[in-house]
Amino acid sequence: MQSVIHVNLPQNSYEIAIASGSLDKLGAWMSGEESKPLNLGKKVLVVSNPAIFKRYGERAIGSLTAAGFEVASCILPAGEQYKTLTSLQKIYNLALENRLERSSTMVALGGGVIGDMTGFAAASWLRGINFVQVPTSLLAMVDAAIGGKTGVNHPKGKNLIGAFHQPRLVLIDPDVLKTLPPREFRAGIAEVIKYGVIWDADLFAKLEQSSRLDQLRYLDEEILQIILKHSCQAKAIVVGKDEKESGLRALLNYGHTIGHAVESLTGYKSVNHGEAVAIGMVAAGQIAVDIRSWNKAAAERQNELIKKAGLPTKLPTGLDVEEIINSLQTDKKVESGKVRFVLPTQIGAATVTDRVPPDVLRQVLWQMQ
């Protein structure tokens, strides 16, 4: 499996490389032996978490060292609850200790949390240095590693502190998914379903044809390739047309408005990002049906895919509806005090609106308890 997808931007265009075994060629990709020259400096700081670094750190660092890079590493605790300014300080300390320069590179080896933190550290260290994404989770491969959104959480809201900072390269090795825990795989499938609903009807149909979506071992190589390629292409096209989320890119937040509220209200512990997005998609889909912008049959098709992926369709037990509604006011997508929702109009298309009646939102959330 090998393909290269281009993210075309007015400035800072880059490639998403999907290639089996590419982790062992990370140094070659970064030095330009496997792709176009990136002209990166020699100093590299690899940022990861303990479990990922134990499994893949030696291979990544060995590849970088063999390519002539001087490599240091930074290990951060795993989990969304550690995606904070405190964790960021550790990256800064090691960047200073290892004398990273403006030509140096931070490499994110891990899932979306590591990618977001590493990207923000790279965006803010010396006012911006190079950054390479090596995603190890499905969610990061199809979504979080692409597009340059970086940041950390505030206790009152997800990703409220951050910056746009595009990577120089996204290197995806599908082989690493073989060691991904099933729950994390399902979390990634939530984002894949999102692309099918808002952008890619063909991808949606392919997912429907698959007998199971809840574990990697039930997917053949062809459907995995379709999932990775179609999802990355969708993200690349949208980001290429709207890098800073002034319009079209907001569609990628489908399921995320209510999803982010669920994550923050559960302390980023009991519900992971993909599970929260799944809940948010069910809610947004029902809102769309209730205001008659989407039909019930399409919503049921979406919900069946979510169930097939082993993802939740109800709110977590004990979560208060009024707390969710209040939490929505801190969402990044609020404009002039109005919460904006991404709502589907058909399989493969969606729109953004701030005209969701409060009683409809409340009723949908009550029904999902």
Automatic annotation (TrEMBL):
**Cofactor detail note:** Binds 1 divalent metal cation per subunit. Can use either Co(2+) or Zn(2+).
- Catalytic reaction list: 7-phospho-2-dehydro-3-deoxy-D-arabino-heptonate = 3-dehydroquinate + phosphate
According to the entry, every stretch annotated as the 3-dehydroquinate synthase C-terminal domain falls at: 188-334
Sorted keywords for this record are: Amino-acid biosynthesis, Aromatic amino acid biosynthesis, Cobalt, Cytoplasm, Lyase, Metal-binding, NAD, Nucleotide-binding, Zinc
Q: Which CDD domains match?
A: DHQS
Broad EC category: lyase
Q: Which GO terms describe its molecular function?
A: 3-dehydroquinate synthase activity; metal ion binding; nucleotide binding
What the protein does comes down to: Catalyzes the conversion of 3-deoxy-D-arabino-heptulosonate 7-phosphate (DAHP) to dehydroquinate (DHQ).
> What is the official name of this protein in its record?
3-dehydroquinate synthase
- Name its species: Aerosakkonema funiforme FACHB-1375
